[in-house]
Amino acid sequence: MAAKTLTIDGRQVSAEEGATILQAAEEAGAKIPTLCHLDGIYDVGACRLCLVEVAGVPKLLPACTTKVAEGMDVRTDSERIRSYRRINFELLLAERNHICAVCVANGHCELQTLAYSLGVDHVRYDYRFPRWEVDTTHSLFGMDHNRCVLCSRCVRVCWHIEGAGTKNVAGRGAQSRIITDLNMPWKHADSCTSCGKCVQACPTGALFHKGSTVGEMERDRSKLEFIVTAREKGQWIAPD
Amino acid sequence: MKTRLATVWLGGCSGCHMSFLDLDEFLIDLIQQVDVVYSPVVDAKEYPEDVDVCLIEGAVCNEDHLEMVHRIRLRTDKVVAFGDCAVTGNVAAIRNQLGLGNHENVLQRAYVEAAQLNPRVPSEPGIVPPLLERVMPVHEVIHVDYHLPGCPPSAARIRTFLTQLLAGEEPRLTGEDIKFG
Asked: Comparing A3-77 with A84-232, is the CATH topology the same?
């Protein structure tokens, strides 16, 4: 495959054709914050935290879904980028009810970690305080929509690693939400194989093992690694 | 001259003040540098004039809190939102999810439906402050100079913050020192 030569933060790097800016930047050692990205599943550019500047393009572009091109000049950090990343991030916090102090994922949460790494010590927008349900009908797992950031990682592992297609995004705008099957309680979603990949993939406390209490929802990183390599190793197919 | 320090307890659990007391022997160093002019732990009835620094614990939940934060802003140089309730509303603001009218519903639930003896919503005009329609983080009501998140902020975090501030530097907490929760 042809290689492309581009500049990332002033450094000349080469990347395979078809690679994303995010992949090229990671190889070049530039750290770009991500939330909806999960190694091993395809990217959708949902969270807008990986925004970067590309010379000649007036708007910021998501690094995870923008492909590298010959001669591209990319900046992964600037005052403008930090400002927009922070705006996007604060809007995520204001949109639903993220109460770290009483969350199962407290201390093990990507959203919480991102907040302090982006320097967010308060949210400048009014919190919306929406009212969302908690679905605890499944025998093993729970879904708390209050803590969901709509990254859709659960949807993507469900469709493209497990191949079950139980999880989906329904609705538009502020009413967007994760549903199971045809918007039915999780226990009635017949397509669900109870594999738990969605729970491992979730960056926040939105998907959790039932019975875990504040701070107890630790994810098993070895299972995440399975998600990353399962497709290439063909492990998600049951042996005959 | 010593820094005039106030600490205030609004709609919170007092955990942030407990964490403040967890400063242990640093409190002795601290008292060399500050006069605690108003606090739940000192006997001052009125919030005084010319306060240099005020740590506000808790969210703005009732009419007393609302009046208090405005008074604090008028009389204080540096206002600090102290802990997650002051910074985000936190647990105190969960009632906001019930929508408008929640201030009546929560009182009904707590004092009537859940009461075993004398079910009655407390109403003593001038004594029991009425709840606001919705709970607000402090910076939604007044200008806040610094945010010190955490539920509660650890004693080490409070110490780092106060040390920077009292040294005349612009307090700059970074990394895990600004972690929520």
From this structure: no
Helix axes A110-117, A79-95, angle to 10 degrees: 140
Domain positions in chain B:
3-173
Residue A153's Cβ-count burial label (10 Å; 0-12, 13-18, 19+) is buried
* CATH class belonging to B3-173: alpha beta
Indicate yes or no: CB of B91 within 8 angstroms of CB of A101.
yes
Q: Average pLDDT for consecutive 10-residue bins of chain B (181 residues)?
A: 97 98 96 97 95 98 98 98 98 94 90 93 91 97 98 98 96 96 95
CA distances from A126 to A82, B91, B140 (A): 21, 16, 7
B chain contacts of residue A117, beta-carbon cutoff 8 Å: 175
Beta strands A167-170 and A177-180, pairing class: antiparallel
* Token representation of residue A89: 């991030």
Q: Which of B96, B140, B149 sits opposite A121 (nearest CB)?
A: B149
- Predicted TM-score (pTM) of the model is 0.93
Question: Are the CB atoms for B4 and B37 separated by under 8 Å?
Answer: yes
Q: Strand B60-62 and strand B34-38: pairing?
A: unpaired
pLDDT digits (tens, 9 = 90+) for B10-31: 999 999 999 999 999 999 999 9
In this predicted structure, the answer to whether residue A221 has a pLDDT above a threshold of 80 is no
- Cβ distance A100 to B177 less than 8 Å, yes or no, reads no
